[in-house]
């Protein structure tokens, strides 16, 4: 089979691009741990308020884990429980969130935290709050007439 010189160049370029893309994807997934929201964690969203940890939303100090606090958030039309959280600055927090009715967003303004809360699924993200301040949490998935009022507030404060 005869291949034109330019055709060889383009084949080489195409295959190389594919390899580079797959290598970057592999590093992102396996080395940096990027992954879709924990789609394996399934929960009965109709009874979610009776199921731990969503029976007690809020911030809890934890021992013996890779993070200092766990923040359990339950979203529903049109608010988040808890509606306001104080987080000591510099603490590593695992946010565990779900929704009890429809799809809601969970975006922490000014950070890279942005999750889509889907009924029946549990979202988890581990993050560190290094800068003191107030972080508005907003819903960025249209969820009904009160969508634009749906918010929470993270207050990152100095430790006493
Ligand atoms: Cu909840 Cu929009």
Automatic annotation (TrEMBL):
Gene3D superfamilies: Cupredoxins - blue copper proteins (2.60.40.420). It comes from the Bacteria. Pfam families: COX2. PROSITE patterns: COX2, COX2_CUA. CDD domains: ba3_CcO_II_C. Its main location: other. The chain crosses the membrane at residues 9-30. Keywords: Copper, Membrane, Metal-binding, Transmembrane, Transmembrane helix. It catalyses: 4 Fe(II)-[cytochrome c] + O2 + 8 H(+)(in) = 4 Fe(III)-[cytochrome c] + 2 H2O + 4 H(+)(out). It is found in: Cell envelope. Residues 55-160 form the Cytochrome oxidase subunit II copper A binding domain. InterPro entries: Ba3_CcO_II_C, CcO_II-like_C, Copper_CuA, Cupredoxin, NosZ/Cyto_c_oxidase_sub2. Subunits I and II form the functional core of the enzyme complex. Electrons originating in cytochrome c are transferred via heme a and Cu(A) to the binuclear center formed by heme a3 and Cu(B). This is Cytochrome aa3 subunit 2. It comes from Bacillus kandeliae.
């Amino acid at each position: 089979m005869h291949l034109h010189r330019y055709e060889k160049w383009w084949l080489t370029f195409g295959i190389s691009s594919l390899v580079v893309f797959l290598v970057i994807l592999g590093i992102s997934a396996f080395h940096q741990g990027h992954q879709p929201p924990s789609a394996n964690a399934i929960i009965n969203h109709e009874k979610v308020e009776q199921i731990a940890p969503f029976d007690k939303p809020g911030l809890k100090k934890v021992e013996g884990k890779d993070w200092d606090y766990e923040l359990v958030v339950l979203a529903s039309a049109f608010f988040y429980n808890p509606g306001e959280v104080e987080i000591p600055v510099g603490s590593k927090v695992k946010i565990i969130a779900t929704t009890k009715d429809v799809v809601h967003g969970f975006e922490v303004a000014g950070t890279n935290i942005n999750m889509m809360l889907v009924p029946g699924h549990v979202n988890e993200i581990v993050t560190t709050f290094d800068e003191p301040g107030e972080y508005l949490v907003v819903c960025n998935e249209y969820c009904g007439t009160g969508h634009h009022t749906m918010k929470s507030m993270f207050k990152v404060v100095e430790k006493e």
